[in-house]
Amino acid sequence: MTGFAADYRRALVQPSPNHGERADGCKPDIILLHYTGMGTAVGALDWLCREESQVSSHYFIHEDGTVIQLVPEERRAWHAGKGSWHKQGDVNSQSIGIEIANAGHPGGLPQFPNEQIAAVIELCRDCGHRWAIRPERVLGHSDIAPIRKVDPGERFPWARLHAAGVGHWVEPTPIAGGRYFQKGDAGQPIEALQSMLSLYGYGTEVNGEFTAQMEGDVEAFQRHFRQERVDGIADFSTIDTLHRLLRSLPNFA
Predict the structure, then answer these.
(1) Residue in 60, 59, 61, 48 with CA at minimum distance from that of residue 17
(2) Helix H or strand E segment including 35
């Protein structure tokens, strides 16, 4: 593919060869946000456009807010890798992938510039409107692939996106003392917490055992929804924030 018309009117087009058909006629119902995790935006964009990288995304957003479209939205970009959401595996077929130029954890978690976040918001609003994507399905890479991925990281301003009409959010319950659960614990309270994480969409196994994988799921949840402390420990703040998020969903009984 040498060129195509941008789906988003403000995007410049720089085609990547790394894409394919969406499986089984899937239409995107997830917007998945990433950071590039590389030292420079130029290097990251070049890598996403190289055939040998075997990775791509639909969009790339520079620090100054410039938006580049690499893959048509109707196509399956290769950005998510192995992961799941609501027990659906092939996230690439279900999603629009947006890479945000930021050095991420390898570069000390630099702040995202205001111009860049404004561009993320506008792009997400545009994609979400055209594809009727629900707010709770605007996700981070770490949500669909806990432990394996940590982007866009605990400094990504999810609250600012939500205030602008993008994504799902409640103000995190303040951190305080009280009972908590951690790796090695077991029993009915652990099973109840696993059920809540699974109901929200995480791939948490409901078995009543607080395993290393569950610790990673809790960290992923905290990285998105309780960013003040990301430690994998299910304290009251974490559990109550999760409960209020579930209660705020329109289809939650």
Answers:
(1) 48
(2) strand 30-35
Nearest CA-CA partner of 37 in 127, 100, 90, 86 = 100
CB 34 within 8 A of CB 97: yes
Task: Write out the catalytic residue numbers.
Answer: 99
Judge whether residue 213 has pLDDT over 80. yes
Q: Strand pairing partners for 69?
A: 13, 59
Give the number of other CB atoms < 10 A from CB of residue 227: 16
Taking the CA atoms of residue 203, residue 153, residue 172 and residue 247 in that order, the dihedral angle to the nearest 10 degrees is: -30
Helix (H) or strand (E) holding 117: helix 114-131
pLDDT at residue 98 tops 70? yes
Give the pTM: 0.97
Tokens standing for residue 131? 């594809």
124 in Cβ contact with 21 (< 8 Å): no
**Sign of the CA dihedral running 172, 240, 84, 186:** positive
In terms of Cα–Cα distance, which of 77, 61, 169 is closest to 121? 61
pLDDT of residue 253: 55
Mapped onto helix, strand or coil, the DSSP state of residue 161 is helix
**What is the percent of the chain with per-residue pLDDT over 70, rounded to a whole number?**
99
Residue recorded with tokens 């305080």: 176
